[in-house]
Amino acid sequence: MSDQFFKQSTVYAWQQETWQRLTLRFPNIGHGILLYGKKGAGKKDFALHFIAWLLCLDKKTTAACGVCASCQWLKSNTHPNYVHISTDDDKKQSNSQIKIDKVREIQPFVQQTVEGWRVVLIEPAETLNTAAANALLKTLEEPGERTIIVLLTDHLLKLPATIRSRLQRYALDRVSTEIAYHHVSQNSPDLDQQQIQLLLNLAYDMPLRALELAPQAWLQQRQKFIHDWLSLVKDKNGLVRHANTWTKALTFVELCQMMQYLVADMIALKLNQQIKNIDLNFSDILPYYDLNTLFKISHKLQDAKIYMQQNIQSQLMIDDLFVVLLHL
């Protein structure tokens, strides 16, 4: 993680305004900062860049110096004035939580008197359980001197209102279409205009998420999947064959992600809304499903992701999904 503090010479283009607001006001920026926005907005990149700057002993306009004692400590992951709190689960499963013990552990840290600034990073903040959130609230109400607590979240409203009200909030997902397009095109010059627009659609206009999606195996398999899906519902047979084919073609997570995007677009079409998969034609498959059935499939896909975290065999879940698609 330590290398990530210095991977950028400056924050992303869409984060410049927030950077200016924070750095120009420093040290009068409050002791609690909440950075929020959609996945792919670069919240953690911004946070680490900013934390390095906060702790730096020779701050530059756009970044930490990278050479002072503080920066060297960050690079070696041994900084005595920095604490990172996250869930115990490296995979950040949907049911993972930040528990009260972790929040209690930082209370002596934020109250001690030391030279320089102290920084705590908590992410993802929405995973704080009730007890941990209450403990954090007390810490926010009685902060130590020269202490800054930074929280990151994809879901602002999942944080308790009492926590939100005590934090300076900064949205990092305010990305213009032009800036998002430029960032993707600069970092993936081989993509044409339609491909970039498709990726941004699927990424909800978040450029970093779009770049993450670009190499995904399922992206090139969508049309073939619709073809097999149509064959399944038209012929009313071949369920096992199709399920086995896609078990081999994609991982369960990839298959679920692809299906979620496709089903969401079919729901959008039923509601006369714009779709994200602008390069696909749903006209043949759409008549086989009503809106209620599509919502049921969508919920089934959400449930499948939860079951996967419980170590249920993926083959069984894929078979079950294809039964749902067959609309039996």
- Kindly report the spatial arrangement of strands forming the biggest sheet: 2-3-4-1-5
Order of helices and strands: HEHHEHEHEHEHHHHHHHH
- Please compute the radius of gyration using only Cα atoms: 23 Å
Number of strands: 5
CATH superfamily of the largest domain: P-loop containing nucleotide triphosphate hydrolases
CATH topology of the largest domain: Rossmann fold
Structure annotation, total helices: 14
For the record, the CATH architecture of the largest domain stands as 3-Layer(aba) Sandwich
Helicity level: 40-55%
Strand content: 5-15%
Poorly predicted spans: none
> How many separate domains make up the residues?
3
CATH class category of the largest domain: Alpha Beta
- Specify the oligomeric state: single chain
Structural class: alpha/beta
Measured between the Cα atoms of the first and last residue, the distance is: 48 Å
Biggest sheet descriptor: 5 strands, parallel
Shape: elongated
Question: What is the overall pLDDT average?
Answer: 91
Describe, in plain words, how this protein is organized in 3D.
By secondary structure, the chain is of the alpha/beta class. It has three domains: 2-171, Rossmann fold; 177-215; 219-325, Zinc Finger, Delta Prime, domain 3, CATH 1.20.272. The chain has 14 helices and five strands. The protein has helices at 16-25, 43-55, 69-75, 100-111, 130-141, 161-164, 177-187, 193-202, 207-213, 222-235, 239-249, 252-270, 291-309, 314-325, and strands at 32-36, 82-85, 118-122, 147-153, 168-171. The chain has a five-stranded parallel beta sheet, with helices on both faces. The longest helix has 19 residues, at 252-270. The model has no long low-confidence stretch (mean pLDDT 91).
